[in-house]
Structures are given as structure tokens and as C-alpha cells.
What does this fold into?
Amino acid sequence: MKDYSGFKLIRNALSGHRNWPRMWRDPEPKKHYDVVIIGAGGHGLATAYYLAKYQGVKNIAVLEKGYLGGGNTGRNTQVSRSNYFYPESGAFYEHSLKLFEDLAQEINFNVMFSQRGVLAICNSHHEMEIYRRWANAIAMNGTDSEILTREDIKKRAPYVNLDCRFPIWGGFIQKRGGISRHDAVAWGYARQASAAGVDIIQQCEVSGLQTSDSRITAVETNRGTISADKVALCVAGHSSQLAAMAGLRLPITSIALQAMVTEPVRPIFHTCLVSAHIHVYVSQSDRGEIVIGGGADLYNSFAQRGSLPIQHENISALLELLPIFSRLRLMRQWAGICDMAYDVSPIVGKTEIENLYISTGWGTGGYKAIPAGGDTLAWTIAHDQPHELLKPFQLDRFESGCLIDEGAASGVAH
Ligand SMILES: Cc1cc2nc3c(=O)[nH]c(=O)nc-3n(C[C@H](O)[C@H](O)[C@H](O)COP(=O)(O)OP(=O)(O)OC[C@H]3O[C@@H](n4cnc5c(N)ncnc54)[C@H](O)[C@@H]3O)c2cc1C
It folds into this structure.
């Protein structure tokens, strides 16, 4: 995209970066769109981008009740990896990781993807045996996955207290896993989608779905009624509410997941560390903050705020593993509302309503899935049939019983 060349960067630097054009247009909603996507998180924006760029659909709107990227996409801890146990998940998340590896070029935006490795540590002999089986199964699926000894962990993360209360036995790592900047992913997709003609309409809350003959005819919003040929729900923790507007009941519950960051410090921690046993995961962002996450809240909620018990739990776990961080000050704590399916796997594709598509069930792990989720949902909408990689992730698995139980996949239990 010429507007963002190296030359423009230098020229704008000389004028104090005051003359950059707007990153995306701010259009008034039209009366009709071929495709209306509800939710301008990563999944909604990526779907719009791939639809416009690769599927030749041009008349698209993304409707967002707040500001784009203000949902879970801008609240997560930014970890990407593809080391899932079941082959269906492995294939899908590997596609996503590959897209992440080239994403900066694809959307001409520096998403700061840093493949520093995602390292899960084991705190008992039994856990070590399970991880060995897990790592081997993942490697057999064709995804990189290596067992590490205590000495390997010491080299990779020298400040980890290997002899903590539950001594560390070893671990396993996906070296291609890592973190990126979540805002940049949302902004990059938004900018390119807008440039391709997609109308991104913020402050536009969907409050109803009009149906006729098992089809959605229009969406009702606080900025008027908009008719649509096809509608996609990409609203994460609000999936059940939006689906209910069309009379659809989803096997999804909404729970808050919290995260927190410390004040920034110089680069000191060069991997993403996960402990299922001590129950915390931690990385250092490129801004220097130590990013800390743990288990989800244990009750359903739509409240996007942090709480003291979770703060206490996560910080105690962190300091058990990394006492070196004990004098850092905590800067922020927040929550996002996650869309949990009973088998902790996504539901992406068609619904029993002819022209209604969904992208949900991403739960606590859908950031890493944004490129593949967008790419495959766009294909599904354009061809009106599930993309090959999405076939196992359809709603009918809750009738057939072909569940993909990834309850243990997130590294910390949720
Ligand atoms: C604290 C935390 C840490 C996480 N860490 C990771 C991680 O490390 N790695 C990982 O892979 N995943 C992680 N996740 C999960 C990941 O963030 C989500 O799965 C992913 O961002 C979901 O993207 P989305 O586009 O589906 O949803 P969102 O980004 O939430 O977007 C949905 C959008 O829909 C909008 N919306 C809702 N209702 C309406 C309406 N009625 N009308 C219009 N718009 C509406 C919302 O405002 C929102 O902007 C984490 C989540 C949290 C909360």
C-alpha cells in the first residue's frame, strides 16, 4: 500500500507525524449490504478483509457497538501457537500460525510478531509423562514441539525458580509460538479492509435481527435498520445474546478472563512461560511490561473488570516461579468476556438459519486464530458451505457427539 511506504514514514517524521491520513474511513451506514458482519474484533475485521480481498465480495459492513478492537481482541495476552493435541485443531491453528508468520507483509502493518517460543513447564513426574505424550502427538501432526529438560529451561529462562514449591521437572516448547501486538492486528485488518471498500461502522449497536422464512432480512441498530443478504455474528462473549435475537440457542456460556501488566522494564524475559500446575502464564511485551494471566473467573458474567482474588492468585503464582519480579509495581488489570463452548473448541460456520453464519466458541484462545478464523469464515460465507478446515467445528457436533475436547489445551485450566 503506497500510503505507508518507507519514504512516507520519513516525510511524516519530518513534519512531526501530524499529516498522516485517517487509517480507515468513517462512513454513514447504507440501507443495504451484501454481507453484514456484527462485531469489529479481530475475527469480524479479518473476515471482512478476506471476503473483500480474496472472495470478491465488495458491499460489506462491519458493525461495532463500541470502538474497533475494544473487545477481547484488545484485551488478550497476545499468545499465538499451534501445539494442539487433536489433529483437527492442530491443522486449523497451524494454518493460523503460518498466516501470522506473514501477517505483517499481508496487511502492510507491523504486528510485531515475535516467535520467542511458548514453553509449558511440568511440576511433577506424572505431568512430565503426560506432556511427553502430548509433545509426541503434536509432533506426529507435523507441528514443531520439543521436550525440554530442567537445564534447557534454565538456559532459556534463567530467572525461573526451578526449585519452587512444586519443583520443575522439565517442560515442552513450541519454538515457533510467540506474541504479537493485538491492537496492531485489529488496526491492520481494519485499515486494509476499509481500503478495499468495507464500511466499518463504530458506535453502531445491533439490537435486533429481523427474520422471515428462516432467513435474516435485516439488522436493527441504533443507527437505523440495515438489510442484508448474509449476516455473520463475530461477537465473542455476546454470541448467545445475538443468536437469541434470531431465535437460535447456542451451546455457549460467557465468562470473564482477566489479565494484568506491571510497569515496563528493560527486556529481561525472552519466552512465554505457562504453568498449568502453579497456574499462571507470563511474557514480556515489546513495551517492557510483564504480562500476567491465569485461570478464568469461575462464574458467568458480562462485567469486563478485574477483581482482587484473581490478582492475588495470579501474583502469588507468578512470584513462586519468578521471585525476581517481586518489586515491580502492577500497572493495570482488566477482563474480557469469553465465549466458552462445552468442548472448549470454536464453532464457526453456517447455522440452521439459511443466511446466518457464526464465529464463536473462541473462549480464552481465539486471538491466535484470528487470521485463520477470518480466512476460513470468509470462504464459508462466499461459498455457502464450510471450509475444509472448519468441517469438524460445526454446530452439529453437539448433536452427533463428535466433540473436540480441548479443555486441556490452554496450558492453564479455565
Ligand atoms: C484476558 C484475556 C486473555 C486472552 N489471552 C489470549 C491469548 O494469549 N491467546 C489467544 O489466542 N487468545 C487469548 N484470549 C482470547 C481472545 O482474546 C479472543 O478469543 C479473541 O480476541 C476473540 O476475538 P473476536 O473478534 O471473536 O471477539 P472480540 O474481540 O471480543 O470482538 C467482538 C466485538 O463484538 C462487539 N459486539 C458485541 N455485541 C455487539 C452488538 N450487539 N452490536 C455490535 N457489536 C457488538 C464487541 O463490542 C466486540 O468489539 C484472551 C482473552 C482474554 C479476555
Q: What stands out?
A: The first strand starts at residue 32 and ends at 38.
